[in-house]
Amino acid sequence: MARLHTLFLLLFFGSAGYLAAQSVAEGPVVGPARGSLVVVGGGALPDTIVKRFIELAGGPDAPIVVIPTAGGEPAYDQNVGKFLTDRGARNVYTLHTYDKAVANTDTFYQHLVNAKGVWFGGGRQWRLVDAYGGTLCEALFRNVLERGGVIGGSSAGATIQGSYLVRGDSKNNQVMMGDHQTGFGYLRNVAVDQHVLVRNRQFDLFEVMEVHPELLGIGIDESTAIVVQGDQFDVIGRSFVLMYDGKFWSREGSDLKKIPDPGKRFYFLRAGDRYDLKERKVLTRD
Fold first, then answer.
1. 195: containing domain
2. pTM, whole model, 2 decimals?
3. In CATH, what number is assigned to the domain containing residue 275?
């Protein structure tokens, strides 16, 4: 009975998602139609980021599911969610498998049915695809957004949120376009990289953009996040976000600057900055 109930929910929300896709002019083109995303570039998680995630999930009592699968360990216990419980969350569950058959069982995914938040941990993003891609779990992740909840993730958990999966090679994370190239697509037509400045990765997205110029590239440094609602995001955290949109933006103007060709440009955003994903431009605050 529980499985039939879940299948009904998936069919209902799947139909709603299809109808929404038919009228993109009336809703977000890049970001989620409902709910929020918290996309973190790896490293330490400041209170500002974690508390914002908990708030967007509905507060301390909201049911939250942590997915640590990208980390590659054989098993995980409930301590995986300690970074959330230490900041006040009281209803946190760990969900982990490498087996798609398991990911399709109602006893496994039961906590996802009513979850208001999902958090993807760091590691290798292709493991998330191999474990959950095309399963009932993946559909239930998306349904969290449909209910107005939040999906967050750091490092691999950031990259998986884009439609194009960078560093998805199962043999080497230095390969930008590897044997896994499709993410979960909460950000459409977007490629997300992480640890960008700490690991000197600021030029790596150019390889992807050269082959896929239609993509919007977003590089997020450690302890920094973008919070996406609809087609806009705000930057929070300690470092910078790099934008690869073929344009250039500067707080002090750019009339006298010698700027590279569009295919080799990026610029920086910091905490407090806002960006329009649909128009691909920085929004100035009044």
1. 33-283
2. 0.90
3. 3.40.50.880
